[in-house]
Design goal:
Length: 251
């Protein structure tokens, strides 16, 4: 068994308490309260400017709140060493692959840079994660040779090499055609179930959200409009919820 596998730890809860954030005189988050259970696929949705991206940055420690807190298993991420204590991985909207590195080098970069394991063991872990994402035999290809969907899967494989307890996905289906978007959604759900992780997905993709989410939080103007299962949101009596969910072209 690899060291990474031996060090795998169970998924964790995430709690957002009264989170507020302003930039200048503009308050972007107006007291966000959310509870995300271990192993849950939790999707955060909302129109542009609703605060989704700013909220995501708080979850990974890139922003410090003006008030409120983010807790992992009841512990504040603002406490020294907290983000190092838990294994948290991020799948960026663009994929954020390094064009100068091969697929395998991109996936194993964190383990290699930090010299966490012998190189032969890193190579084996990388191979396993790529195979899990349907990318067997792609190790030596360069990012420029990959399709958009393949780049997303490589980015997910890179997140998996640390055996994360939490995976954050930022618009995982953006710029993908509908068929590939469905495939990525299926992978997110499958990996969540097979790897004992808590998955938090920020997306504007209604089909993705309703296809994979255990629960969905709909934001508007930096506030939580409603939280519920896909069925609960679909049956919501809130006019703003229905307007967002059923938006379409009208001629």
């Amino acid at each position: 068994m690899s060291q990474a596998a031996q060090n795998q730890r169970p998924s964790v809860s995430v709690q957002i308490q009264g989170l507020r954030k302003s930039f200048g005189e503009v308050e972007v988050l107006h007291g966000i309260d959310l509870k995300i259970a271990p192993r849950e696929v939790f999707v955060i949705m909302g129109p542009s400017g609703s605060g989704k991206s700013v909220l995501l940055k708080h979850l990974i420690g890139l922003e410090t709140p003006d008030a409120g807190d983010v807790l992992i298993d009841g512990h504040s991420i603002q406490s020294p060493g907290m983000l190092e204590r838990y294994r948290l991985a991020m799948v960026f909207q663009s994929g954020a692959l390094l064009n100068s590195l091969t697929v395998a080098e991109n996936v194993g970069l964190y383990l290699t840079e930090h010299q966490l394991l012998p190189q032969d063991e890193i190579d084996q872990i990388v191979k396993q994660k790529l195979e899990a994402l349907g990318l067997k035999g792609q190790e030596d290809r360069m990012p420029e040779e990959l399709s958009g969907g393949m780049k997303k899967r490589v980015a997910i494989a890179r997140a998996l090499v640390i055996d994360p307890q939490i995976i954050l996905y930022d618009e995982p289906t953006s710029e993908l055609d509908p068929l590939i978007a469905v495939t990525i959604g299926q992978e997110i759900k499958r990996l969540n179930q097979e790897n004992d992780v808590t998955s938090i997905v920020v997306s504007h993709d209604r089909d993705l959200a309703f296809g994979i989410a255990d629960r969905i939080a709909l934001l508007e103007d930096g506030q939580v409009l409603q939280v519920g299962t896909p069925k609960e949101l679909a049956e919501s009596k809130n006019e703003k919820v229905q307007k967002f969910l059923n938006a379409s072209f009208q001629f």
